[in-house]
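Exercise: predict the structure of this protein bound to manganese (II) ion.
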Amino acid sequence: MLSYEEIIEKYEPALGLEVHVELGTKTKMFCGCPTEFGAEPNTQVCPVCLGMPGALPFVNERAIESTILIGLALNCSIAPWSRFARKNYFYPDMPKNFQISQYDEPICTDGYLDVEYETPEGMKTFRIEIERVHMEEDTGKSLHVGGATGRIHGAEYSLLDYNRAGIPLVEIVTKTVLGTESYAPQIAKAYVKELRDILRALGVSDVKMEQGSLRCDANISLSPRGSGKLGTRSETKNVNSLRSVERAITSEMHRHAQRLEAGERVVQETRHFQEDSGTTRSGRSKEQAEDYRYFPEPDLLPVAPSAEWIEQLRAQLPERPSAHRARLQQLWQVPDKEMAAMINAGVVGVVEETVAEGADPTKARTWWLGEISRVANEREVEVVEMPITPKDVAEIIALVAAGDLTDKLARQVVEGVIAGEGNPAEVIAARGIKVVSDEGELVAAIERAIAAQPDTAQKVRDGNIPAAGALIGAVMKDTKGQADAARVRELLLGLLGQS
Ligand code: ZN
Ligand code: MN
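Solution:
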């Protein structure tokens, strides 16, 4: 079996990413039903989204506006005229037997998104070209009951919930991405992350991958170097976390390489990512576009946004996340390398929020990049998913600044908050954490240290200040790290005639 390095030496990876994002509109794409997540099954439905005979759809204006905003943010051209199309297929979660989508006349085309990624050779920008951004509607959800896996296979019966049927979806499709080389899995993840940040900044979606409001289909193929043509791709569907995007692509690269090395063909098919094993399993063989018998949707008017409206929306675009980060870097005076580390760790946003809560930027960065990132890595979750908030971190930083916590105690508080013991105040109370600031207690501990190490004490009296370190260490140990080291040093040097 080839190692990852050997795979890259022999084969060139080509990526293709399709992201579906549920818009945060109050009502559905083609009817007035509400869209809130988590409602009782089949309570947010009407004749239109249930596909009853005679029911006619009408377009949600806010959804079109959101889609144009997305297109503009991704540097796309906005079509002055575009149309909806019917994508015909049967699936029980789709009551009309067709999905209203856009086919050969999408609303946004030919854009790009620049993704920054820190490689061992320094920060690099990868331009991901966007082929199209189009509007469609989501399907309902099937729930398979009675089987061991929750999948249809082995289930006794299935339930259908049409609340999600007709929720506005925007599909963002890249062109084939070449040139990411060994970074293909990381660039794919960085792209989805950057896209998520942009969508969040636009306010068009809550972009919660775990709730499915942002889902990624990851296409990958390998072609022998120098062959001059693309390999056969596989498409891993509905990957629902950033980490899984990276893992799914890595796993597929290994699987493709293994088949190609064995002289076997890669089958063009959809696959499903399995969180537990980190691998994919076969879904269905991939349909061709012709199979869907697309035709223009006869029940809806074409979408023809005026140039004026488009320019109005362009003027509303928020600061681009990359520009926003550059501004923060300048404001916080962060060196390039540190900034890159923050971007890769996904902590820029939380650091910004911690600073907004009054914390010093350097301290905020140290906590998020250090202790909190370390535990997030151990738990294999994103830093932002850690159960500690920017407000908690800012509070802890303030307590250290006020001398109420030492750095060491602050780490214990962070640890407690992450362990789910409550907010910083609750952790401090529950664990009985407090700085020994009682001077009498400190002096007694210092006197004990001097008595235990008379030779060292004499050295300090004779002017060898660095020798005080051993005594300070002994005091810190004596007080179980709960003393303020700077104050101990001050008192100790005073007692030994060196202040
Ligand atoms: Zn409806
Ligand atoms: Mn789609």
